[in-house]
From TrEMBL:
<keyword id="KW-0813">Transport</keyword>
<dbReference type="InterPro" id="IPR051541">
    <property type="entry name" value="PTS_SugarTrans_NitroReg"/>
</dbReference>
<dbReference type="Pfam" id="PF00359">
    <property type="entry name" value="PTS_EIIA_2"/>
</dbReference>
<dbReference type="InterPro" id="IPR002178">
    <property type="entry name" value="PTS_EIIA_type-2_dom"/>
</dbReference>
<dbReference type="InterPro" id="IPR016152">
    <property type="entry name" value="PTrfase/Anion_transptr"/>
</dbReference>
<keyword id="KW-0762">Sugar transport</keyword>
<feature type="domain" description="PTS EIIA type-2">
    <location>
        <begin position="7"/>
        <end position="154"/>
    </location>
</feature>
<protein>
    <submittedName>
        <fullName>PTS sugar transporter subunit IIA</fullName>
    </submittedName>
</protein>
Amino acid sequence: MSTIDVDLLKPDLVLLDFEADDRLDFFRRLAERLKSAGYVKETWLEAILEREKDYPTGLECTAISVALPHVDPIHLLRPYIAIVKPSHPLEFDGMADTGLVNAQLIVNLGVMAHEESQVAVLQAFLGIFIDDEASADIMAQTTPEAMIATVKKYCA
């Protein structure tokens, strides 16, 4: 059984060709979207920026560079998973001081669960992204519905 709750994957949270100048602009624009859709509290933006500074989430895999930002559930109104393919790669600091990562895909986890469950979801996505074929398949998707179907395919 998958550790990713695929019911959290919604077309309105699959953002393709997402325009952002840099990481800060990305988080500001995503915060606006998530707040207006009723997913996050006003505290989300500051919390995710602080967490990203303390615990960077960029990851360079062989076929794809990703970022997996997330915050503590206290900043959420309801759970979600946002999958964002920016119009151009965005610079994120790498996990474990691995340098800068130009993220081609950003998966923002809004998981309302215990820390162990959040780690399990992160590990499940990492398992997808270390698979070159799965990564290429995900990056080839051009509609929110196709992106969701593809992610679900690799979660099974």
